[in-house]
Amino acid sequence: MRIAVTGSIATDHLMTFPGRFADQLVADQLHTVSLSFLVDNLDVRRGGVGANICFGMGQLGTDPILVGAAGSDFDEYRAWLDRHGVDTGSVRISEVLHTARFVCTTDADHNQIGSFYTGAMSEARQIELQSVAERVGGLDLVLIGADDPEAMLRHTEECRARSIPFAADFSQQIARMTGADIRTLLAGATYLFSNEYEKGLIESKTGWTEDEILDRVGQRVTTLGARGVRIDRRGEEPIVVGCAEEEAKVDPTGVGDAFRAGFLSGLSWGVSLERAAQIGCMLATLVIETLGTQEYTLRRNDFMDRFTKAYGDDAAAEVRTHLK
Fold it and tell me: What is the secondary structure of 191-222 as a DSSP string?
């Protein structure tokens, strides 16, 4: 399967302030705050949901196609993704804007002050999926991830118009979307991804019940945190898959993206939905054990040993034939 992943491309600039923000604030001067914090360290991490998902798929050897917008400062990030098996040929490079960026400072009490610069992400709406399909010889599935809202709508509408199967994955953008937007973006989706909280928010905002949503999508994939994942289909028994045992819980950031990477890779290999969910859960476990969304390394033998322990010999034998 040729799978394209549309979604944000960004870098995170994370700093640590050894003091407390509260100690620097003067109660009667909050209307005219002007502060500068001397920080101890700067950690720059690659991120963005589209890039994170593609990185995971690249680790599994499934040749994902990244579709998104970045700035002229993307060269180093592009080289990283190219080295890790991601097709970046459909990334639009802005002539005037930088790659999206999250800048955040955390104090000793874990309070945070952050800013998100959307930058070139706003140009994702100018990308036409047809040109992507022509470049790679057709598309079998498009995951429409969190991105510029106009881009998400355009890509969804184009998938419908061109009869390209698509997966709806609102993620961080669901908070700002109206019920009408959500109804437009999920109708006709082959897969609908969300976590458990987002699932309730989708139902609340659309005014549709769970059954009414299942009437409009093929499969509904809901991640349940430490309890794994549940896949619902109209008229079918749900598929529930538990998480693989983790060795440490370091950082949950990017775990959902990793699950999607594993699940989509399983679809690319043509395995069952249950098996695809198991692959997703195993990859998500690697990410929660690592600081950063793209800092983990998939070592085939270790991956398969842990996968076997979690899901059994038969499941492992099927996955082993696909894993490069």
Answer: EEEEEHHHHHHHHHHH---HHHHHTT-SEEEE
